[in-house]
Each structure stands twice: as C-alpha cells, then as structure tokens.
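Q: Protein translocase subunit SecY, please. Structure only.
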Amino acid sequence: MKLADSLQNINKIPELRQRILYTLLLLFIYRIGSHITIPGVDAAAVGSSAQSHANDLFGLFDLFVGGAFTRASIFSLGIMPYISASIIVQLLGAVTPYVQKLQKEGEEGRQKINQYTRYGTVLIAAMQAWGVSVSLASPASFGKMVVPDPGFFFIFSTVVILTASTVFVMWLGEKITESGIGNGISLIIMIGILAVFPQSMLAEFQSVSLGSKNWIIEVLILAFMVLIVAAVVMLTVGTRRIPVQHAKRVVGRKMYGGSTQYIPMRVNTAGVMPIIFAQSIMFLPNTFLSFFPESEVMQSVAGIFAYDSWWYALMFGTMIVFFTYFYTAIAFNPKEVADTMRRQGGFIPGVRPGKSTADFIDNILTRITLPGAISLAFIAILPTFLIKFANVTPGFAQFFGGTSLLIIVGVGLDTLQQVESHLLMRHYDGFMKSGKTRGRR
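A: Structure for Protein translocase subunit SecY:
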C-alpha cells in the first residue's frame, strides 16, 4: 500500500513523471543498441564461444554491458572508457597544478575538465576498440573464425563504430543526469548488470535441476545472498553524526542560533566510485593482452587477471581500499567544512574552531573510512570465494557481492533518494519515510 501511494504521488508531479519517463526512454535506447551486431561479425559464432571467455577481457566487460560482448554489439565497450578517462583526469587533479586550478574555477573550470574527459574517452575507446577488433579477427581468440572477411577495412570500421558508439553512450548518460533522474553513467552500468541477472539465475537453477547441486545448499546460498544485500545496504547508508552547535545571536528583534545540528559523515563516503575505478583499471591489462591472442605467454599472464583468480582478488581489493581513501579525500574536505562552520558561527562542543576542528573531523573521517574500505573490498572479492568453495556459477556469484551488487545497491539508493527529494519538496511522502533508513536523517 505504501509503495502504491508513492507511485501515485510520482504521477501527480508532472516534472518528476517526465524525468522518469525520459530516463526510461534513454535506457531503452541503450538496451536496443546492445543488441545491434557489429557489421562483419558472425554473432552466433561469438555467442557459442562466449563460455570459453568468461574470465578474460570479454567476460569482464560483458558483465557491465549487459551481454553486449556475447552478441558482438556496437555497444560492446559500454561506458567503461569514460570511467577510465574520469579516473585519469581525477588523478591528474591530485598531482597537476593546472587541473587543480581548473577545479577551483567553478562552472567554467568544470566544463573544461569535462571536455578533457571526453577527449580522453575517445582516445581510450579507440585503443580498446582496436584490441576488440584484433581479437575478433583472430581465429585463435575463439577457436574458430567469427569474422568471415577479416582485414584492414574490418578493423578500421570496427574501431570507428565502437568509438562512436561509446561517445553516444556517454552522451546518453549525460542527458540522463541533466534532464532525467539519477546519475546517468551509473544507471547505464546498473541496467547492463541487471540485464544479465535473469540468465544467471536460470543457469544456477538449471544446475540444481540437473542434480549437480543440492537444493538445500542452494536455499542456504540464497539466504546468504539476502544477508549480504542487507549488509551492503547498511554499509551504503551507515553514517556517523558529529554534533554542531551554533552560538546565539540577535539580529534586529529576532534571535538566531542556539540549535544543535549534525554533520552526517557516511561510512562509505566514496559510494560505488572506488569499485568502478578499480574495475576500470583491472580492465586495462586484459585490453593490452588482447592485442596478442596467439601468444601463449601473454595468455598465461591474462589468466592472472581472471576475476576468479586469487591474484585478481588481492589486487582488486587493494585498489578498492586505495580508491576509497582517494575519492573520500576529493569528495569531503575537512578544512572547508571547518571554515564554513566558523563563518556561520558553528562549533563542535569541546573542540576549538579552525584548525583543531579540521583535524578533529579529519581524524573521525579516517577512522570510519578504514572499516568502510575494508568492508567494501571484502564484499567486492566475495564472488571469488563463492566460486572456489561454494561451486557457484561465476555469473550468479557476482550478485552475492562483488562489483555488481555494490553498484546495484548504491545506484538504486541514490536514485530513490533523488526521487524522494522531489516528493518531499512538494510535500508528498517518499519511499523511505516509514523505514529505518538512517541516510534519511
């Protein structure tokens, strides 16, 4: 009943209704594009050989693009080149004075940074498209010929098509963010992940029906999945509130201040960005190795970066911890918070304003980020343990944790909060009013 009332409230707000319909339309266009095959490729031959590539470049990308790789789609690269370009630009912002200057120039600087990110997206997409075209043209990649007429024209046309398609997907994401609801880039990644969920569920239950797995064990695994989802939600919305008091002051005949407010510091301030950043970096080695499909040495090295290997789990978890601290430092600046509090006459009880307040906030942020980063890394590499010890299929294991679950929960909650903000601004009840979601505070 509560859900039905919220849906009716959404329908009563024309702007919100139009934003949601616009978002669904662009996501539908993205899904249509993921079913259009690259010209010159035998899609049936690629699909029949997809199982042998579950742990290499094709399998990694295929998870984020909704099966576009198994269909040799024009959207095979998805939005990941844009994510990789964003990582590079943000890293440059931490070490390059010119980019740091642009970050402080407000809207004009942000537009220039976005422009550089787009240029980087085109360059990275072209490199990855080249690797994909070489892999498709080589019979050694699939054990059979999937391109009837390989040659320079096929490679050139594939690079152009995949690069242009990536730019188009990037444009879709930006339009969703601008005129739709939610973060467009994150929604595109999430919709690609959800697209393969029914197929993964079907494969898992088929293994149970064939007798290769015990149904009691499967029920326990599903119950464990529910617990993991609940833990991810708690990690996503968990906050530490710092009390802030404001001194009383008289302006005219009115008295202001004297109230207590709170600074909500999330345990996972960085959200899903560390997962996306780390996953994008892990794509790069396989992109390079795909240039050498006939080299046994290179393909043996590629086995290290298979997402069910221990080395991959160790490197992936370490990078998640690093990017969690890195992105938290970018998203939350204790010094700016302390300066804003001092200008507004606020202070933390027992802490002197200024540098002492900044150090106090930074100390708390560091302490709560550490367990958040470790929990994030553990959940991200959990599918490796499930594949090794619980005999869970690789596709289904990604929804017990890993990148897939974290992105789905994080993006889903963020989108719901944006919908709720539209409802509350117009005095309607949101989706999470009756729940105990601490992020609502």
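A: Brief note, in case it's useful. Strands lie at 239-246, 249-251, 254-256, 260-266, 346-347.
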